[in-house]
Amino acid sequence: METNEGADAAAPNIRVLKAVVIGLGLLIVVGVVALIVGLFWRASKMGEPAGAKVAPPTALTAPALPTGPVALPRGAVLTDMAATGDRVVLRLRLADGTTRLIFVDPRAAAVAGQLDLKAE
Question: Which tens digit of pLDDT belongs to each residue from 79-97?
Answer without folding.
Answer: 999 988 888 999 999 988 8
